[in-house]
Amino acid sequence: MKLLTLNFLTCAVKTCKTSASSFPLHPRDSELEIVEAEINVQFLQNILPRLMWEELGGLVNELGLPSLPPTAPLPSALVESKLQAPESDTTGLNIEKLEVPSQVARDLHRVLLETCIMSGGLVCGNCGHEYKVLEGVANFLLPAHLV
């Protein structure tokens, strides 16, 4: 389960629906794995406004990962412009402007899309119910008494 997923999950227990403390779910005894993927800056720029930044920062700290900045970066901060002469141009007169992912984009990509919770649990801050995670998949099926 990618860390990005935790930005959209809340406790499924009926009594927790109205409680602010049921979001985010807190990882417990989590085993993390890095699954490398190609960076997609456009995706990061589009998802950035939808992230609950303060909560994401808390999750990152709980997992012992490198801290995120206190405020969300602007989408424009995810790309850097570099000047480069085309390989066929030996004069250096035709310089192209390339946009490449910034270090901020690479760090955000690493945390959101490459860091996965492979096992452990996700705990509700309101009711304390724990959802087990096995092989990267969280089990959100509730016992009958909690539905």
UniProtKB/TrEMBL annotation:
Domain of life: Eukaryota
GO molecular function: protein heterodimerization activity
Transmembrane regions: none
A family per Pfam: Trm112p
GO biological process: rRNA (guanine-N7)-methylation; tRNA methylation
InterPro entries, A to Z: Trm112, Trm112-like
Family stated for the protein in its record: Belongs to the TRM112 family.
Name the UniProt record assigns to this protein: Trm112p-domain-containing protein
Organism of origin: Clohesyomyces aquaticus
Lineage start: Eukaryota, Fungi, Dikarya, Ascomycota, Pezizomycotina
